[in-house]
């Protein structure tokens, strides 16, 4: 008789406030979302657990819907991977759902798209109640010019001009499927979806659109910047505060709940 334990793979939907952590990826100081989740999962599993995510977020970047998975020999009701794990997590991070999946599922490699939202307060005075939750730009911005620039960037391009120097992606070519710009009462929302994103790509694209909205970057200048494929000519990387991972796309065959959760703020209607 075979007494070996049979393992299972569990997928999780996770949300977090990035201000409390040094990003997603595990670090020696243990102050990351992955470290906190690994510790809480290990308590419930009664064995060491290491989870993997759909994508790494930087320090200060939030998630309305991150997707992770882990393997374990522990057999627990799905509620234990939600309520039980949350009881051992800091208040800034929470598991919102759990599903058992096959071993052919991988949170990162099974995904076919990622979505982000960036919230930018366009106001002469910096935010206080929303500090850390929105980006900020003090001078007036032309939302129409930013929409025109965003539309130009749609499609498959070499986004090297919007790629961090330390980016480890094998190819700078990505397919930007959505780049919407909406403005309400001084709060500007950028919504982006792509097959994948380069390191700092969203924050660098937002920085370019801010330049476009302030009149410092024309549409011809943006086209030239994209064609140059060199980061050093692009506008500075924008602050992480207003950036949210809002969704991850997977084939329906995995049977996951909706992996898109719009980021909502009190000022947004």
UniProtKB/TrEMBL annotation:
EC assignment: 5.4.99.12
Keywords: Isomerase, tRNA processing
SUPFAM superfamilies: Pseudouridine synthase
Signal sequence annotation: none
Gene Ontology molecular function: any one: RNA binding
GO biological process: tRNA pseudouridine synthesis
UniProt binding sites for substrate: 116
The organism's place on the tree of life at top rank: Bacteria
InterPro entries reported for this sequence: PsdUridine_synth_cat_dom_sf, PsdUridine_synth_TruA, PsdUridine_synth_TruA_a/b_dom, PsdUridine_synth_TruA_C, TruA/RsuA/RluB/E/F_N
Reactions catalysed, as given in the entry: uridine(38/39/40) in tRNA = pseudouridine(38/39/40) in tRNA
Domain Pseudouridine synthase I TruA alpha/beta stretches: 15-109, 149-251
Active site: 58 (nucleophile)
Family per record: Belongs to the tRNA pseudouridine synthase TruA family.
Biological role: Formation of pseudouridine at positions 38, 39 and 40 in the anticodon stem and loop of transfer RNAs.
Quaternary structure (record): Homodimer.
Protein name: tRNA pseudouridine synthase A
């Amino acid at each position: 008789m075979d007494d070996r334990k049979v393992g299972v793979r569990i997928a999780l939907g996770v949300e977090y406030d990035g201000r409390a952590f040094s990003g997603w990826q595990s670090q020696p100081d243990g102050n990351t979302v992955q470290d906190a989740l690994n510790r809480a999962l290990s308590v419930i599993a009664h064995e060491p657990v290491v989870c993997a995510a759909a994508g790494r977020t930087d320090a200060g970047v939030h998630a309305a819907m991150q997707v992770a998975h882990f393997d374990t020999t522990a057999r627990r009701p799905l509620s234990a991977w939600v309520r039980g794990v949350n009881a051992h997590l800091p208040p800034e991070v929470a598991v919102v759902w759990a599903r058992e999946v096959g071993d052919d599922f991988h949170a990162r490699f099974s995904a076919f798209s990622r979505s982000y939202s960036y919230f930018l307060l366009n106001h002469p005075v910096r935010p206080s109640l929303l500090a850390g939750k929105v980006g900020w730009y003090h001078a007036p911005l032309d939302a129409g010019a930013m929409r025109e620039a965003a539309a130009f960037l749609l499609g498959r391009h070499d986004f090297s001009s919007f790629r961090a120097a330390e980016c480890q992606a094998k190819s700078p070519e990505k397919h930007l499927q959505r780049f919407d710009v909406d403005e309400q009462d001084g709060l500007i929302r950028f919504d982006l979806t792509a097959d994948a994103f380069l390191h700092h790509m969203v924050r660098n694209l937002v920085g370019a659109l801010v330049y476009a909205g302030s009149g410092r970057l024309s549409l011809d200048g943006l086209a030239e910047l994209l064609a140059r494929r060199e980061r050093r000519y692009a506008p500075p990387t924008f602050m992480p505060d207003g950036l949210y991972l809002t969704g991850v796309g997977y084939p329906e065959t995995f049977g996951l709940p909706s992996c898109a959760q719009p980021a909502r703020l009190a000022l947004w209607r």
